[in-house]
Design a protein that fits this description.
The complex is a heterodimer of chains A (494) and B (116).
Chain A (H helix, E strand, L loop, with lengths): L5 H16 L4 H17 L5 H21 L3 H39 L16 H17 L8 H9 L1 H4 L7 H9 L6 H35 L6 H32 L17 H7 L2 H16 L6 H18 L4 H34 L4 H8 L3 H27 L3 H11 L11 H12 L7 H8 L5 H18 L13
Helix pairs in contact in A: 1-2, 2-6, 3-4, 3-5, 3-6, 4-5, 9-10, 9-18, 9-19, 9-20, 10-16, 10-18, 12-13, 13-14, 14-16
Chain B lengths: L29 H5 L4 H22 L1 H9 L5 H20 L4 H13 L4
Helix pairs in contact in B: 3-4
The chains are: A mainly alpha (494), B mainly alpha (116).
Amino acid sequence: MLFPTPEFAIFFFAVFVAAWALRTLDEPRKALLLIASYFFYGYWDWRFTALLAVSSAFNYVAGLFIAGTKGEVTRKRIVGVAVAANLSLLGVFKYYNFFMDSLTDLTVALGIQRDMPFLEIILPIGISFFTFQGISYVVDVYRGHIKPVRSPLDLFLYISFFPQLVAGPIVRASHFLPQLTRRPELTRTAVVFGFLLILNGMFKKVVVAHYIAAGLVDPAFADPTQTSSVDLIAAHYAYAVQVYCDFSAYSDIAIGTAALLGYRFRKNFDRPLGATSLAQLWQRWHISLSTWLRDYLYRALRGDKRDGGARMYRNMFLTMLLGGLWHGANWTFVLWGAIHGLGLTVERFIKTHGHAWRTSRLRLSTVGAAAVTETATPSAAANRTAAIVGWLITFHLFTLAAVFFRSPQLDTALRYFAAMFSFQGGPHLLTPFLFALTAGAVAVQFLPGNKIERFAAKAGDWPAWTLGLMLGAGLLLIEMIGPQGVAPFIYYQF
Amino acid sequence: MVDESVSYRETKTFWRWPSRSLLPRPAKRAAEDARKPDSIANVRAAAFAMLIAFAIFLVFESEGLRHFTRDLPGNHITDVLVSAADRWHALMQRLGPARVQPAVREVFDRIREIHW
């Protein structure tokens, strides 16, 4: 079931009314939300609900085992088995044929070609997201960050809660499970906030992402050699905007629908295309994934030691490389992760050594306090220049790397770059409308954050009919100017 | 020695720091949060607002309603829904609201097709 469809609107309204009708009955309300979540997931293919249930049951039992075991070594073994089992599930469905394919290429290169056992595997939607939630639960129980859940209903609902099930945000057990133990409350601000996020998400997905994809990105990537340089340059910027609008739209709608049901999810995107460094970009882009990678992958690579130097750079690079591989079984994703990993390590290296260099300069110039102040405090103009230069570098690294992310094969990406840098031809695909959509989406990244929250707080005392007119008129306008039918969200495939 | 009186902290400007309003609120606002909202009244208001939005859709997007009913699996109930949606769309066309969508669409398509 896709968010921007009449089916989802009817489903959500029914769940909303029923869940709040059962507000005072905790267990029946949670059971209702669980059934609704399985219905939502099974709407694509009911067989995958069994996979979701097995994954949830396994993590529930693993959590109880970890908490009930005293010996550290045994606890470590149990959590190791639990994480390995979760990753195996992901590995079989997502990466099996990729590894077989790569192994075939290797055997051909070595002249020992063998027939590999390829399987016809359908990738269950959202498998990465619920697997990551399962891993975060067992690891948090092991680390003592949360207590194991006694009620299987709570854990099953945590893993399958429909707003975030298919494409995130990756909700942490420590954040969501305590909300299940409290009776949900709904403030008027949360109602307005939920409606505004749904409207915002619908506009980004149905209008911005759709028209940019259909009019510019898809034709440019279909055959880069037949597309002019101007269109290819525009399309590589536009694709970054498309991915942002598509994915952040899903997160917005997920956070908005959860807010209407009385649950709070953390922000998943925070104006990432306005970031002035790569490190900042990854603090603002798919925040739930980047913090997940930091807490469960980077920390696992680092171990107990606070590392620095080469080891830290290696771990940072590997984290991004594996983060790239998480997006899909394709070398283009691996290369995309490697570019970001390399970019982050270089940026960190420059920052660390630049700071040491500035400090040593300060030491040399400690003649008088006035002189030190002059050297140490950068002017506002210097700060702004540094921010602009940082943004230009970060934005272009992100958009250029996105060409690998979008290309189905490495070869397509290389042909794309060759055609783009040939600097031939004028705009054919790029129209003023598509230019305005792309540039506008980038420009809004520089507006102050929390616009929606602030507006929701102001509009909290609006009467219900005004809210209804706002929601209805907004959705109607999006529907009127949007396409017939909506393509699935990009992150469904991950 | 480095002069400790000098502040090395970067200025907190909007392009440097992500906003974090959805994270748990700081403790100092706990007293404000402790006031319980009237959830039931807010649920009623939200449900009423959603019903108004549905009504707006039914009036102005009667064509979309026809498409939706035609995509439903065929049976006696959906047959009734399809014919009801057809009658409703004919009525909305006669009264005017169903003509708004094509007019808006035409203007939008004209803007979309402007070239350099």
